[in-house]
Specification:
Length: about 70
Amino acid sequence: MSEMLDRAVAQARRLPADRQDAIAELILDAMEDERRWDAAFASSPDVLERLATQAEEEDRQGLTEEFDPDAL
């Protein structure tokens, strides 16, 4: 276990059980989300490659716009 996770678990142990369960649920949910994203990307490399190729072609054709963070 990493030092940071070890510190977090040590602090969580001092909390009431219901708060510990809430933290555990957040961690488990985040890990499951990560697993699903990994599976989705692993099963779709062709789609991602096709989208990247399409985006590059659109940029070469001048069909893209420069990103302006101030326009948000």
